[in-house]
Write a structure and sequence with these properties.
It contains six helices and no strands. The chain is an all-alpha fold and 199 residues long.
Length: 199
């Protein structure tokens, strides 16, 4: 039981810190990045709450419905902006429709995990060491492959990013650093991989 509890707390810490940084980006980052940061903050917070070990806090039965409503709405919003394509917000920062598709997949994965946890025998990180696997293996496998590829892709993009500096030669605020935004996305994708593996 100690292993799943420890991994659950590590996920809570990782996703909580990531969510807090995304909130900082939302307040101090470039205007066109704030909507992206808002979505990432919601995702990080949801993942942190979902990863809390059951030995500490057993979620009430209705918590799955809350996840479905919140992340279902986030998925619909991401779908709306993904369909808008380049005309949607954040198109000038490279966070266009592909980033909205990623948010759509992430929100749908959160809905999927919430439904799988609510099903009889469902379980996830820290929610019972002997819990049986939940969800549809083929869908879980597809999400695992997607997030594994995404982790490699973001990791490759993160390596060559130089320290950011403003055009005037000064330093850039913490909310505007592109390498930290990429690290934030990488950590959330790793957290999602971990949660899907323990589903």
């Amino acid at each position: 039981m100690h292993g799943p509890t420890m991994s659950g707390w590590l996920l809570v810490a990782l996703c909580g810190v990531t969510s807090a940084y995304c909130l900082l980006r939302m307040r101090s980052g470039p205007r066109e990045e704030r909507g992206v940061a808002r979505g990432e903050a919601l995702m990080g917070l949801g993942m942190a709450v979902m990863a809390v070990p059951a030995a500490v806090f057993a979620p009430p039965r209705w918590s799955g419905a809350v996840y479905v409503v919140v992340f279902g709405a986030a998925a619909l919003r991401a779908l709306w902006w993904a369909r808008a394509g380049a005309g949607g917000p954040h198109h000038s920062t490279g966070a266009g429709s592909s980033h909205h598709v990623h948010h759509l997949i992430g929100s749908a994965a959160m809905v999927y995990m919430a439904v799988a946890m609510a099903a009889p025998g469902g379980g996830h990180t820290g929610h019972g060491a002997g819990a049986q696997a939940g969800g549809v293996p083929l869908l879980t496998g597809a999400l695992l492959v997607y997030y594994a590829v995404y982790v490699l892709w973001v990791g490759a993009r993160l390596l060559p990013v130089p320290a950011a500096a403003s055009a005037s030669g000064g330093t850039v605020s913490w909310g505007s650093r592109p390498e930290l935004a990429l690290a934030c996305r990488l950590s959330m994708a790793l957290g999602m991989l971990t949660m899907l593996l323990t589903l």
